[in-house]
Amino acid sequence: MMDVLGSVDMIVLAITLLISTSIGIAFAIRNRSNKSTDDYYFGGRKIHPIPVAASLAVSFVSAMAVISLPVEIYLYGSIFAWNVVAQLIATMVAVIWYVPLYHRLNITSVYQYLEWRFNRAMRMMASICSCINLFLYLGLIIYLPALALSATTSLSLHAAIPITSLVCTFYTSIGGMNAVVWTDVLQCVVMVCGMLGAFVMAVKEVGGFDEMMEAAYRGGRMNMNKFDLDPRTRSTFWSLVIGIGLNSCYQTGCDQVYTQRYLSCRNTRSARIALLLTLIPGIFFTMICVGNGLAMYAFFEKCDPYMSGDLDKVDQLMPTMVVALFQDIPGMAGLFVAAAYCGTLSSVSSGINAMSALILHDFIKPCSVGFEKKTEYVLATSISILLGVLIMALAYVMSFSSSSLVTIFVSFSGWIAGPMIGVFTMGIFMPWVNSKGAVFGFVTGWIAVGWIGLSAMMSPNLYSPEPMKGKLTLSVDSCRDGNLTNNMSKVKNDTDFNSTNITESSWITKTIYSVSPFWYSAIGGLVCLFVGNAASLVTGRNKSSKINAASNADENEDEET
């Protein structure tokens, strides 16, 4: 591909990366005399709620919001806007129950709670699954901005991946939580500017807001009233509010990335304020993603560049539109690519810091006789560096995937989120559930969802072809000839192949394997709760008096306030 980012664009991108790196160096110098893991992982537990809120908001928004979520709206419509309700539910659940619990326990790993409530085996399993989930997620989102850079410059995808990995690994490993939080603030601002700039320019290009909405109605993208109860339909009100809602509850209540930020605040009140403030940028990011997706559909209404063969991957749609929009405006295309990079930098730095904390506190320290303060700090930074290298390697693997990255992430995340929210729910609200029930429930929920997800992903032509279950129509009517004829023949053959398989496939393929990945969290959670309660009943359920009082969110609050 020819270079489409000019010198001004590259300067904008370079300045963003340079400032992020400088923040890490600044905090490394500032904290050189206070090298402790408490400062490295929790910023000394005294960070102000406002920067913590910005950090929370962008930690899981990432480049997914900048590049891939608009593609989700482009393909499946504005129904995704119901994600706002899911965010609200998850935030309130965490504010009411999880935040005060974790501050009262003053934990370093969120899964310490599971050891106190159940046993060490439960803590280890949960921590391992969380690390796997984070590892896969970070590999995906490192790949995304590299995809944007390769789509807008002559730099190859495999050359762009190390740039992203090295920058965020560097400032995270040397600066710790303070560097992560304050770079997140910068990156939040850049993401807002980049995404908003793309939306405003796209609306202007298609003839105004009314023209964009008319195109969305013509293409069936204004489908907010989709209350279909069929779980095989990819995106509905129910799958988003319940399925994605449970996924969000896992993030806000059971995830180390969020928990570390709660504990970096001075007290429960500050942490609650920080979490509530995340709703403002969170809702904005969701709505601007919907807007960019609709604007992108209006822009490509008559010629979808992926179907026409001009693009190799569907996730290149957003960078392609931005390049076309800003080719005569120096710096703006660079700002968008910088926004994608900022999304990834924020998420990867948060994830590396969180995984490093889990590995150190859940696996290394319990098996050792104790470390000196300096040794523990060196271990923390070394683990962060190693994780950065491994995640970069995973991003290379992800670059060979042809699936939509939103689908991949939701599938993987659902395998972990459902059973995890299930076991935390049993721990906090079901005192009769014992350790055997928790372990059996968690493992069974994970196996059930993993079986469904893997079967679906390994048989893409057998499980619910998306054109039949939610994907909206696209047009190539106004495309130039080029690769169009061959590509349309390929699309037709693929569709015929899918239809044949659906007709001839088994009952289980047409039902269970066809469930929308947005429901995976709900399935895993329900299986975990059912098996956990049943196993506890069979093996002898707990008596309330036997439960460690420290693990209960409501006990001893007055004494410790």
Give an account of the 3D structure.
The protein is mainly alpha-helical and 561 residues long. The chain is built from 22 helices and no strands. The model is unreliable at 461-468, 482-504 and 553-561 (pLDDT under 50).
Short précis:
By secondary structure, the protein is mainly α. Helices cover 71% and strands 0% of the residues.
List keywords for this structure.
561 residues; mainly alpha; Sodium/glucose cotransporter; 71% helix; globular; disordered C terminus
The CATH class turns out to be Mainly Alpha
- Low-confidence spans: 461-468, 482-504, 553-561
Q: Number of domains in the coordinates? A: 1
Q: Which secondary-structure class do the elements indicate? A: mainly alpha
User: How much of the sequence is in beta strands?
Assistant: under 5%
Largest sheet geometry: none
The second-level CATH architecture is Up-down Bundle
Distance between the termini: 61 Å
The average pLDDT value, as a whole number, equals 82
Give helix % range.
over 70%
The count of helical stretches stands at 22
Radius of gyration: 23 Å
CATH topology type = Sodium/glucose cotransporter
Oligomer: single chain
Give the total of beta strands.
0
Order of helices and strands: HHHHHHHHHHHHHHHHHHHHHH
**What general form does the structure show?**
globular
CATH superfamily: Sodium/glucose cotransporter
Break the fold down into its secondary structure elements and pairings.
Layout (H helix, E strand, L loop, with lengths): L6 H24 L6 H6 L6 H11 L2 H15 L6 H23 L6 H6 L2 H33 L4 H49 L3 H10 L18 H18 L1 H9 L3 H10 L1 H21 L17 H9 L6 H33 L8 H26 L6 H25 L5 H24 L25 H21 L2 H4 L9 H20 L17 H4 L1
